[in-house]
Design a protein that fits this description.
CATH superfamily: Outer membrane efflux proteins (OEP)
Number of strands: 6
Strand content: 5-15%
CATH architecture: Up-down Bundle
Order of helices and strands: HEHHEHHEHHHEHHEEHH
Shape: elongated
CATH topology: Outer membrane efflux proteins (OEP)
Structural class: alpha+beta
Number of domains: 1
Helix content: 55-70%
Length: 495
Amino acid sequence: MRVRAAWALIATSVLTACKVGPNFTEPKEPVPDHYAEAVGAQVSDSNPQSFWWQEFHDPQLDRLEAQTAAGNLDLRAAFLRIVEARSQVQLARSQGLPSLEGTASYNREQLGLAGILKSQHVTLTSPTEEGLIGSLEKPVNIYQLGFDASWELDFFGKVRRAVESANASSEAAVESRNDLLVSLQAEVAETYFQLRAAQMLHKITAEQIAAQRDVLELTQSRHKHGLAGEEDVDTAAAQLSTLQSELPPYDQTIAASRHALAVLTGQAPETLDAEFGDSGELPALPQVVPVGLPSTLARRRPDIKESEASLHAATAQVGVSVASLFPDISLSGTFGLRNLSTGYLFDWDSKFFTVGPTVSVPIFHGGALVANVRLSRAQAAEAALQYRKTVLGALQEVEDGLSNLREDAARTASLKDAVASDQKALAVDVDAYQHGLITYISVLTVQIQTVQAQQQLAQAVLAQSTDLVKLYKALGGGWQDAPPAKAENIDPAQH
């Protein structure tokens, strides 16, 4: 009964023991009520959709995003880092649990008493003494079975703080994976839009080449009939060659984008060569973009949540270092069976045991323990500053995204008007040239201006689409509905 009461007292003491070091509290970084750059932009305060790419209503983009989430190799590696972090949690937790080891041994032993007696100049005076020493000098077999148990009592919370830190680090690993997923989703969308924009520019240039061939044939015909000079023919031919020289860079961009998308989805570079066709258009942009409120940004951005988890881990490490200044108290015990014969090894009279507490008090470590406390406190302070920097950076990214999106939308609208006007002017000049009313130089000037305006418009639409993707990324969407990482479903041998 006394033993049971002692163990109950010990268990109660462990469960109610204090945890030294600071307790973690969620940081509350002040944020504005609304985004300043949202004024004048087509945005709303409603929370953004998690699967933001579906707002573009492009099935091909939807498939690429799904393939990336399922097959990207960096994302798989992030899953394995989560497994590693969760294993660290189990390792930390095991430090606070009792340990038990089984032992078994066999030894053949001779004591060497005769030599010891000789070294001490002891003389045996009787046959009885000589017989006793002789019997003890014979080699004997010693058989032993036993168990060793130990348990470090976590009176000052060293193990519990270590478990708390490991749990926070595990959460940081999960949020790091989520942040990677958000970045990959944005990279896929941007690369896909670059591919479609290159196809648009390729199509525009090909149409201009076809039109320029007609102009060159008209100029050659007019020269043949004496209605145009040879310099007009040369100028028209030079313009045709210039337009043709613009096609290879677009083809390079298309090929590079296809290869990049294939690798992002975890496939060989040439896998998607036949997926996107020879021509395509940039998807239409949504009319209104939901951006939510700054106060909700910290719950949506995984990098902010990762930074908060890292701050939690660093704060718990302060407790671990402080607890190292206090004594370590542990219980240890040994129980076993020992005999010279296997026949009596399991006899209860062959038992032996030891049990008792052990206290280890730090006395002098050259200042290492105190320095470790200072180091952990400095690291926690640095983590707090990093959290604040992450929040401010997130707010900046959203504000920059809103500003860029608004300005690019205005530029796109102006370029659309310019392209429409240039096309009308070009049609009038080509008709006038056909009737001999103006020279080809006048046509060429308007033609170059029209081509440049069309290219600038395509680039502006691409920039607007890319800005929208960056804004969605800054808002932290794309991970909320992703399947959670399950360690039991991840086999490192398969990755």
